[in-house]
Model the fold of this input.
Amino acid sequence: MGKERDLVQRSLVVCKPDAVQRGIVGEIMQRFERVGLKIVGIKMVMPDEDHYRAHYESIGKMITRRGEEAYRYNLHYMMTGPVIAIVLEGVEAVPLVRKIVGPTEPKSAEMGTIRGDYAHMSFGYSDAKGIGVPNLIHASGSPEEAKEEIELWFKPDELYDYSDLNEKYTR
Done:
């Protein structure tokens, strides 16, 4: 049971301002639910700069990896409207969510992924324009990152344990 339980993971997904403003959050959530992932937490929020710095640098090391300018472009983009934070749970949820979402650069995403189907921006274009990449969604990169991100975005009493019908077939 222990090893089996270790394979059941939680992942943070954030539907970014462009997904919210385009009205496609329901379609995005439906893709996760269709494969049997369970929503255990969800809320609409408009985080401040400190929250985004904690998310993108303290946890994700974006400034360390890509520089302050890239972070600033992304911060401006993220603060253009509310986001919807979701915690998904399922068997190897973190890599499954990443597979469904597609790579960070929408231009490189395959059709059939969320970014491949709903976005097309390239890093080159966004850099030339001095803007963040509107890529619709954030997904945790590893189980360890997911744990830290979920703790940042959700209080323990905002997450729920319950059984759903999919578990009969997916666990």
Observations:
- The mean pLDDT is 94.
- The CA atoms of residues 29 and 39 lie 9 Å apart.
- Strands lie at 8-15, 38-45, 83-91, 137-139.
